[in-house]
What we know:
Blueprint: E1 2-6, E2 11-15, H1 17-22, E3 30-31, E4 36-37, E5 50-55, E6 61-66, E7 71-75, H2 76-81, H3 84-87, H4 99-104, E8 110-112, H5 113-118, H6 120-133, E9 135-139, H7 145-153, E10 167-169, E11 185-188, E12 200-209, E13 216-220, H8 221-231, H9 233-241, E14 244-250, E15 253-259, E16 262-264, E17 271-274, H10 292-306, E18 312-315, E19 322-326, E20 330-334, E21 340-348, H11 350-359
Parallel strand pairs: 8-9
Antiparallel strand pairs: 1-2, 3-4, 5-6, 6-7, 9-19, 10-21, 11-20, 12-19, 12-21, 13-18, 13-20, 14-15, 16-17
InterPro entries: AlphaKG_dependent_hydroxylases, GBBH-like_N, GBBH-like_N_sf, TauD-like_sf, TauD/TfdA-like, Trimethyllysine_dOase
Function: Converts trimethyllysine (TML) into hydroxytrimethyllysine (HTML).
Cofactor: L-ascorbate; Fe(2+)
Amino acid sequence: MFEIKCEKKNEILKLNQFWLRDHCRCLQCYNQVTKQRKYNLLDLPEDIAVKDWHNTEDGKLLKVKWNDGHCSEYDLDFIYNSQMDNIKLRNDLRMPWKSSEILSKENDLKFKLSHVVSSEDCVKSLVKALVQYGIVFIEQVPANTTMTEMAIRRIFPIMKTFFGEMFTFSDAPDHADTAYSKDYLGPHTDNTYFCDAAGLQVLHCLQHLNGTGGENFFIDGLNAAYELKNFHPEFFDILTKVSIPAEYIETGQYHKHSAPLIRTDSITGDIIQLRLNVYDRAMFNTLPQRDMQKFYESFRKFLQIIQNPANKWCMKLQPGTIVIFDNWRVYHGRHSYTGHRTMTGCYVQRTDFRSKARVLGIID
Length: 364
């Protein structure tokens, strides 16, 4: 190990020498245009070691001469911020909420289409709110699929699935999915049967004629998961480890995937994805029968928290208002309805959502 003092933080950093050489950013090792390394890891000597080093007088740079003659220069802040212990300390912008809390922030979640189209600052505010609360609204959008698509493409590229890019649905059974009905839909996330579920979902009610009901509701899965973790840590642990199979079957399509209801980051322990759809569950064959009882106790307790009325934000989506919500965080559902209702919407890939937030300087 190689030890250096980070004067700015008044800390001693212990660095693996191979790691340090692997992070050389000189023109020989790193392409400044493509932001990619220029060498094969096997090009580095197996016995690579620091021969000489010193900090610059201002304490900002570390200069290293290696035993193979190569010279490197490092920004000490870059080295410090790249250490795993410091990554764990980074701020999480997400703000868990119950219905009373999100209602107090409702005005901060609404953005006019004209402002979204004309203002980069508005787009940044919208994406930041989406990171923080997992849900935003774009208002004053003409009630048709074309304008809905235009509004979303102003911010994100659209994800293509077998439903298409933009999809329109009512109670006509166009797909083998309960969403294509007038029935009640309980809280869920979409695409649990995909290997990589959509990161965001977009919905826009185009019309509701000659009927009642159909109110949509949203529940912050992050808040529910924290409640489970705080009061029932054993149940939380089980739901982060047991994979739940899901499937989607119709003519020409058979999607299947298994993953836990709660996925955590292996480094920080942060909750990074909530996954729940009681309708899409496939044969549950990923757990020995001797462990089933404890799993079902955990699952039921989590559902009780999710379905607590205090966590449910209910509203009637109206033509002209698009809702965008985090499909890895926010559970959504719908009350049954009568009459004829037409919805349009789309998905956005998680990687595109996160990329936009990084480009705008909202997240690391």
